Amino acid sequence: MKAIFYLSVALCAVYAACGSAASEQQQAQTADSVAMCHTGQIPSRFAAMRQDSLIKAGSSDERGMVLIPSGKFKMGSLNFEDAQPIHEVQLDSFYMDEHEVTNAQFAAFVEATGYVTVAEQPLDPKDFPGVDPKLLVPGSAVFAAPEEVAGLSDPMQWWSYVPGANWQHPEGPSSTIKGREQFPVTQIAYPDAAAYAKWAGKRLPTEAEWEYAAKAGRHSNETYYWGNDKKEDGKWLANIFQGTFPTSNTKEDGYVGTAPVRSFPANAWGLYDMEGNVWEWCVDFYRPDAYTLDRGQQNPKGPADSYDPQEPGAVKRVQRGGSFLCNDQYCERYKAGSRGKGEVNSPTNNVGFRCVKDIN
Question: Could you tell me which residues belong to the region Disordered (predicted)?
């Protein structure tokens, strides 16, 4: 059934992905145990849109990728209800991109294929009965810091749907990726990420692969993927939000929005930005009870379907790593073992991806 888009409801998507650590945390978690900072609750504006099946699978080498060795690890976190129980997982070796896919890399894909992302595709009013046609214009959700807010319960105070926002114009038509070629590409819906991965001869990671790679064989119960201290020798180790969310980012880490890839230290396996910067799509369907299901612990692929109690009809995939908007006041899901979620056709300017590749 084709979804009807309501702009005001759609923008509330942003709320369901980042947990509040402020006084409103209990209120937020009452509505959703997985509070998120981007597209968790937004019914898809693009639910009726086609998925591109014309992209041909490509071949790739392993340049720019890191070999992740096979092994076992403890997956999950006691700090997040949907990341429990902690359980042991065994994974085969695989290759993973050392950093998020960049604007330059995605531009090469578009140039080679003519691919049009979800946020750029025209909308047919026939697919959205009852919706004002003036609202049915290509665009996407964009974060903009307000001067003041009345609490943190209404994400529409800092998110808005911006016509013309897409991967080439991540903050809207007046923005550009020129000069930001080495920044992570954003405004990417799940089908966009999957299409790129197919063209590149790769695939999107499972969330087990993602977490295993982030822990790099050295960490298990620490607060962050690098350890228990947020800073090292006074230096920030990830691009997250400092200051008072969402009104004042003090830019202590050097960035207000996304940062160029490799701006922060790599982990022990040579992977960059496994916390912060942009959320990263994983192939797994999202379910809050995923870890309680009998899904097998050898190279798990995730549940067979998606279910979010807050939006039972929405198809959601897991997102990992948090973004430049995460902070301990509102969004804690950049921390080790935490899980994000996103409606598959709802891009924002803090969501990107990286790829993995099987060892042939």
Answer: 294-313
